[in-house]
Amino acid sequence: MTSNNAMTSNDTRTSNETIALLYLQDTVSFNERQVPDSVIHYTIAAAVAMGLSLIGIVGNIIVCWFLFFRIQRNKYTVYIMNLAVADLMLLTVTAVLMMVNINTLVGSNPDFKGNEEFITFLEIIYDLSSYSGMYFLTAISMERCISVLFPLWYRNYRPKTLSVIMCVCLWMLGCTESLIENLTCPNELFRRQTPVCTGVEIMTFTMSICICLPLMILSSVTLLIAIKKIFRDRYPPRLYIIIIAAVFIFILSVIPFNFLWFLLYFRRLPSIQDILGLYFASIISAALSSTANPYIYFIVGRVWKQKSNNSIHDALHRAFKAEEDEKEDLKCEKEKTSSNTGETNSTSCNSDKTQSSNDTNKENIL
């Protein structure tokens, strides 16, 4: 009992997974004598997170397949494709981590050979995908916001390869941040709260809470205002709705736990149960955010008035269509319904779409 309390007072968050695994090992021995129900509760939480991750893995694999091989790419689908890859990586690592946690709680061999090295590797991939996904979401929301605020500049002067350059830079930024967090501050240094580790904790807090969060909120508010103006005349672009929904879910499910982990580093939660509860809640919330994204694409891209012809390909194609393409489609539909000479209008619409497709192909994207 005394040793457990001492460990609780000295340990803080290094990477969530390492500390949680240490506490899980202590909890198993602690609860075998006193509170066996907590082991069941944590096992159920790990199973829920793993099941949620498997559902998200299926959705993100479908999105990746269609975006890579079936749907014509544009400046927005590049971001969405990289976001789907980051979500797929995060959910895969989450499922494996939950297996390790369940093995630690109820397995016959919790301390298997190479356990620490394997957990460290998973931590690096988990943080890489988590940070990169956050940056991709921030980038696409900010780019859409800029297109609303400065439409002339965006239409005439935006670099054609901006999406690719941004995605490469954001992957590198996420990788660098993950390596710094996991390799420069091992478990022992985090327990002592060394200046280097304190600096790393402040860095991650600044990137997520002080930079990405305000940018997401600013862009979402801008898009909401744009939707309010557009909605008077026509249905708003589906991409606006996708961005706002994804950002909203991310802010509600992920950002609060990032803030709590930051407070934990300096203030410490009083008991092992509180830390483990926060760990599993943060894992489930991150898995929920990554799982929700592909299904948001399907739901927003679906045409609910139609009972048929709602394939996944068509839903994703409509969801990620650029705003100018949506305007062209609406223009064509109005011309077809308002004129009896539909053949001439259809020909002009098809020629406009062909020209738009050729312009899109000129962009050097992934």
Automatic annotation (TrEMBL):
<feature type="region of interest" description="Disordered">
    <location>
        <begin position="323"/>
        <end position="366"/>
    </location>
</feature>
<feature type="transmembrane region" description="Helical">
    <location>
        <begin position="39"/>
        <end position="68"/>
    </location>
</feature>
<comment type="similarity">
    <text>Belongs to the G-protein coupled receptor 1 family.</text>
</comment>
<feature type="transmembrane region" description="Helical">
    <location>
        <begin position="239"/>
        <end position="264"/>
    </location>
</feature>
<keyword id="KW-0812">Transmembrane</keyword>
<dbReference type="GO" id="GO:0005886">
    <property type="term" value="C:plasma membrane"/>
</dbReference>
<keyword id="KW-0675">Receptor</keyword>
<feature type="transmembrane region" description="Helical">
    <location>
        <begin position="200"/>
        <end position="227"/>
    </location>
</feature>
<feature type="transmembrane region" description="Helical">
    <location>
        <begin position="276"/>
        <end position="300"/>
    </location>
</feature>
<feature type="domain" description="G-protein coupled receptors family 1 profile">
    <location>
        <begin position="59"/>
        <end position="297"/>
    </location>
</feature>
<feature type="compositionally biased region" description="Basic and acidic residues">
    <location>
        <begin position="323"/>
        <end position="337"/>
    </location>
</feature>
<dbReference type="InterPro" id="IPR000276">
    <property type="entry name" value="GPCR_Rhodpsn"/>
</dbReference>
<dbReference type="InterPro" id="IPR026234">
    <property type="entry name" value="MRGPCRFAMILY"/>
</dbReference>
<keyword id="KW-0807">Transducer</keyword>
<keyword id="KW-1133">Transmembrane helix</keyword>
<feature type="transmembrane region" description="Helical">
    <location>
        <begin position="80"/>
        <end position="102"/>
    </location>
</feature>
<dbReference type="Pfam" id="PF00001">
    <property type="entry name" value="7tm_1"/>
</dbReference>
<keyword id="KW-0297">G-protein coupled receptor</keyword>
<keyword id="KW-0472">Membrane</keyword>
<dbReference type="InterPro" id="IPR017452">
    <property type="entry name" value="GPCR_Rhodpsn_7TM"/>
</dbReference>
<feature type="compositionally biased region" description="Low complexity">
    <location>
        <begin position="338"/>
        <end position="351"/>
    </location>
</feature>
<protein>
    <recommendedName>
        <fullName>G-protein coupled receptors family 1 profile domain-containing protein</fullName>
    </recommendedName>
</protein>
<dbReference type="GO" id="GO:0004930">
    <property type="term" value="F:G protein-coupled receptor activity"/>
</dbReference>
<feature type="transmembrane region" description="Helical">
    <location>
        <begin position="161"/>
        <end position="180"/>
    </location>
</feature>
